[in-house]
Amino acid sequence: MMRKVFIVHYSEIGVKGKNRAFFEKRLVNNLRKALRGTGYAHIRRISGRLLIELEENSALDEIQHRLAKVFGISNYALAYASQQNINNLQSDALRLIQECDFQTFKVDTKRSKKDFPLTSPEINAEIGGYLVANTGASVDLANPDLTCFIEIVEKYAFIYLSKSGGSGGLPVGVSGRVAVLLSGGIDSPVASWLMMKRGATAVFVHFYSYPYTDIASLEKVKELVKLLTVHQYHSRLYLVPFIAIQKEIVVHTPPDLRVILYRRMMMRIAEILALKEKAQALVTGESLGQVASQTLANIRVIDESAQLPILRPLIGQDKNEIIEQAHRIGSYKTSVLPYNDCCALFVPKHPATSASLDIVKTAEENLEINALTVEAMNQVEVQEFTSPYTTNRCMRNSS
Ligand code: ATP
Ligand code: MG
Q1: Which of 8, 107, 259, 320 is the S-S candidate for 50 at Cβ 3.0 to 4.6 Å?
Q2: 142 exposed, middle or buried (CB, 10 Å; 0-12, 13-18, 19+)?
Q3: Ligand 1 surroundings by CB, under 6 angstroms
């Protein structure tokens, strides 16, 4: 039996010049966490790719399943290790494709080892000719039933017949930290996912109005964080009581400004937590025009409440596009559980759609902003979430 190995090709990180080693090491680290308990043997950096070396009893399906969720991977393949000579490659390729049902094929060689005696087209021709002679199948370069991939790299020679697309993006952690304002809704988990996809580590901040809202709404947020933690292996969730602030806003300010004032208070508190976490931006699930608080005028007023940039990865997306992504990342079912969110409380029938900063600031003069912020900060709770993968759980034979 030929030795099996996963070859992992990464996306943009190949072109990052001097930073490349940094990116690769982060990806290797993330893979170690993602693959914990699958019984893989070793992860090796070789030129331009990673190899996941396997044991007899490695859980191959589980490894594939988890690789699909690791950011920074463009594609991955379960490959067979052959030898760096054309005769071995020919006979090993034949052995592999004989197990498949096909009429046409092509050979697709990548040769990173430039001193191998044959060029890539020569290898394609040598192996292709051999396979035609021994199977009766014919070559179709444009639309083959089967592609036989060959990679010659460093001291290795690999053969594989299919590859899977990865999640793309950058390895989580290479882009620094962000603080995501996570509601229990559909949008903010998708916004978190997009930021993690671009290599950011997300710290989560949730504002709750318990006991005015259902305790289950807190469980729902924790469930969402748990789900998102699959992509970054460790998460921190800050739970901030918000009801005292809402009450003050309701009593002392005009109803049409409530949502904007809620949001500005959230930004102030989230910013304090972000700075504490060395996060460099705040993130929300806002999308232009989706609701009254998300008009350009209101976004401008909300932005003024924080110094850190407020990133809105969903700003240009339609609700149905966001929902589609929520399904894809698996957060939708949890997000639509029908529990009250704090912002549904005391929301007026006609919220302002274009608040002016002057009017908002005048309204805020009636609030003890600092005292309210300090009081909320004093009651903040933190929860840690770790990767759901435990050791040995997925070994095929754990004997
Ligand atoms: P979502 O589906 O993310 O809840 P939404 O369409 O309900 O978004 P809003 O309720 O206006 O929109 O919230 C806009 C953004 O403000 C959210 O995406 C989220 O980033 C933030 N936000 C709202 N409520 C909370 C909360 N209770 N805790 C933390 N962040 C919140
Ligand atoms: Mg919401």
Answers
A1: 8
A2: exposed
A3: 181-183, 185-188, 205-207, 266, 284-286, 290-291, 293, 341-343
Full domain range(s) for residue 208: 177-386
Q: Which atom of ligand 1 is nearest to the CA of 291?
A: 11
Task: Answer yes or no: do 95 and 123 share one domain.
Answer: yes
Q: Is 142 in the same domain as 182? A: no
Residue nearest to atom 30 of ligand 1 (CA): 181
Rounded Cα–Cα distance for residues 167 and 221 (Å): 24
CATH number of the domain bearing residue 121: 3.30.2130.30
Q: Which residue's CA is the closest to the ligand 1 atom numbered 25?
A: 183
| Residue 359 to residue 377: CA distance in whole angstroms | 27
- pLDDT mean for each 10 residues of the chain (399 residues): 91 68 93 95 93 95 96 97 96 96 96 89 97 96 97 96 96 97 96 98 96 88 96 97 96 94 97 98 94 88 97 97 97 87 69 88 97 98 86 39
Ligand approaching nearest to the C-alpha of 192: 1
